[in-house]
Amino acid sequence: MSTLVDIVLPVFLVIGFGYLVRWRRLLDDGAVDGLMRFAQSVAIPCLLFLAIARLDLSAEFDLALLGSFYTGAVSGFTAGLLGARLLFGRPWPDAVAFGFVTLFSNSLLLGLPITERAFGPDALAGNYAIISIHAPICYAIGITAMEIARAQGAGPWDTLRQITRAMTRNMLVLAIAAGFVVNLMHVPLPGVLVEALTLLGRAALPTALFALGGVLYLYRPEGDLRIVTYLCLISLFVHPAITWGLGLALGLNVDQFRSAIVTAASAPGINAYIFANLYGVGKRVAATTVLVATGLSILTVWGWLAMLAAFGY
């Protein structure tokens, strides 16, 4: 119970404060949107840029770590897509959108702060390694699958251009790419620049969590709750369970294992809804799943943390 109170609840209380402030109309939709834009377009990119620039790539960019997490993620995508199509009879474009929900864990706004509170800032290297390729991999899978599902005659080059366009307009991807350039080319960063970026980075997670609460207020529990339940089960249990099994089999070290499990156990992120909204399919189910899974993850993440402790992690 102390894990729930000391580690998990503070993160979700910040989300709750954002929800409460929006509900009581202390901030309007424009203000909440501005906070989220600041977090996603300025503060979090600064945080990620510095993290990737300083990351020991030879030690932390480990194929076993990434393979454990992303095998679970792709398995979740496949289960979400095929389940929506075969079990619930939804059209293929809807099925792809639902698969994206089970693919895109909230690695930044939930996985990162929970790992930091549970295991300290020195345990975040594995999180940053996962995050560094999270958006490119997930959007590449989602956009490719959606273009195929829509079957509008677009050739492979058109699909590739669509993927590239989405990647090059994403500030998180650009910040990560810049961090890799600085890291690999050993570019020295002026101390004053590092201090400024650090100050902005410190605002990233609390601002984003608070704004997430305000954004979640806009969603209403709508859509087919059977599909929502199915997607929540995959996101909160199947993905981390697969990652757990593979992490043990591949011999991840303690910090890598913790980072992989906590990130895999995180609820779907806002990007799941953004993707559905981008294509105009499955929006109600995607929004409801983000809302419901985020609420449920208060208990499920606590459960996964308790399992980590029980197994000596």
Describe this structure in words.
This protein has 313 residues and is mostly helical. 82% of the residues lie in helices and 0% in strands. It has 16 helices and no strands. The longest helix is centred in the last third of the chain and has 28 residues, at 283-310. It is globular, with a radius of gyration of 19 Å. The model has no long low-confidence stretch (mean pLDDT 87).
Which sequence of SSEs, written as H and E, runs from N to C? HHHHHHHHHHHHHHHH
Output the structural class. mainly alpha
What can be said about the biggest beta sheet?
A: none
Radius of gyration: 19 Å
Q: Secondary structure elements and their pairing?
A:
Layout: H1 2-23, H2 29-54, H3 57-60, H4 63-87, H5 92-103, H6 107-119, H7 125-132, H8 134-150, H9 156-168, H10 171-185, H11 191-202, H12 204-217, H13 225-249, H14 254-265, H15 270-279, H16 283-310
Helix pairs in contact: 1-6, 1-12, 1-16, 2-10, 2-11, 2-12, 4-5, 4-13, 4-14, 5-8, 5-13, 5-15, 6-7, 6-12, 6-14, 7-14, 8-9, 13-14, 13-16, 14-16, 15-16
